Amino acid sequence: MPKLGERNDNEMWRIKSKPRQGRVLHVRSGMSAEQTLALRVGLVIVLIALVIAVFWFDRDGLKDQIDGHVSFPDILYFAMITVTTVGYGDIVPVSHTARLIDAFAVTPIRIFIWFIFLGTAYEFVVQRIIEDFRMSRIQKHLQGHIVLCGFGHSGFIAAQETVAKGHPCERIVVIDQSEERIRLAAEAGFIGLLGDATSEEILTRACVGSAKTVIVSSGRDDTTILVILTVRHLSAGTKIVGNIKQEENIKLAKLSGADLVVSPPRIGGYLMADAVETSHATPFLCDLMSVGGQMVLTERPAAQDEIGKTMAMATAGVVVQIHSNGRAIPFTERHRHIIQPGDLLLVISSAHGDGKAEGQ
């Protein structure tokens, strides 16, 4: 994964890495499709009008092979034919000036207009057909994937850690309204969808119904809650993790359908408060939360050889909590609680697989 870079004036986090080919399924400019098309049509009209004006002022250098007289309709006809084709030979430039104008002024305009025609055809027809085809192929293989709504700072870190935990980049779909962020996501190897994550159409394209988890980190609590509501409406069983900033909105996010709510300001406050009285607790907790740390916190089902034993007798790592039949068994019960089939264990262990930690 690329490393996190610096922010620019727009508070955009950039990825410092050598760009590689990725997927950007939907790319749009600052203008709507109708505005873009109107601008290009207007540009073509202006260029054709320029050609007509040039030919009209130099009409004495043209010769009509039919009647020998060059009228304005003839100029209009000749300009259109010259711009769109190489002409039919019924009207021809005969003077040196007319031929130079045709060679060095009209020909570049003709080429430029054809570029406009071809570019418009590609953008409005060919590219959309290709993107729809690629999207349909990707959707066929999207099962048990992760959808990340928002690719800001928190979203990027979440994606980075998710990949570090073993999830392939191509199994992570990033949704964002920023074309720049989607480009960065694609360069990092993710599937990028440019659009509003509150839109049912965009979420359906991301196949949230078959996703393993949807992470919502839009940067605004109201938007995050709306995305959570929309995802839950589309899929009752998909796990949703929401990033909420304001304390009073945590309950709303849970009521909206979030399975887990993470509050970065709240977590940061806890860590800073610990740092007031301790020097090593905060670095240890940060190390524990990061995949690249020396110790890792994992959640796993109870192993077969651990069933029937106490938490303190677990064979791999330090069991700090057990979730059994909807109850959270704390570390203080490690000598009393007997591990049952189906229990989920929260375990702290060495990132290097050194086995059972000391002092359990």
Separation of termini? Answer: 35 Å
Class derived from helix and strand content? alpha/beta
Poorly predicted regions are 1-24, 355-360
Radius of gyration (CA) equals: 32 Å
Number of strands: 15
| CATH architecture assignment name of the largest domain | 3-Layer(aba) Sandwich
Percent range for β-strand residues: 15-25%
Query: What's the CATH superfamily of the largest domain, by name?
Result: NAD(P)-binding Rossmann-like Domain
Q: Please state the average pLDDT score.
A: 82
CATH topology of the largest domain: Rossmann fold
How many distinct domains? 3
**Helicity range of the residues?**
40-55%
Taking the sheet with the most strands, its summary is: 7 strands, parallel
The CATH class name of the largest domain reads Alpha Beta
Identify the overall geometry: rod-shaped
Q: How many separate helices?
A: 10
Strand order of the largest sheet: 3-8-7-6-9-10-11
> How would you spell out the order of helices and strands?
EEEHEHEHEHEHEHEHEHEHHEEEE
Subcellular location: Cell membrane
Keywords: Ion channel, Ion transport, Membrane, Plasmid, Transmembrane, Transmembrane helix, Transport
Main location: membrane
Domain RCK N-terminal: 143-263
Could you describe the 3D structure shown?
This protein has ten helices and 15 strands. The chain starts with a strand and ends in a 10-residue tail after the last strand. With 360 residues, it is an alpha/beta fold. Strand 10 (239-243), helix 8 (250-256) and strand 11 form a beta-alpha-beta unit. It folds into three domains: 3-28 and 142-262, NAD(P)-binding Rossmann-like Domain (Rossmann fold), CATH 3.40.50.720; 33-137, Helix Hairpins, CATH 1.10.287.70; 294-360, Alpha-Beta Plaits, CATH 3.30.70.
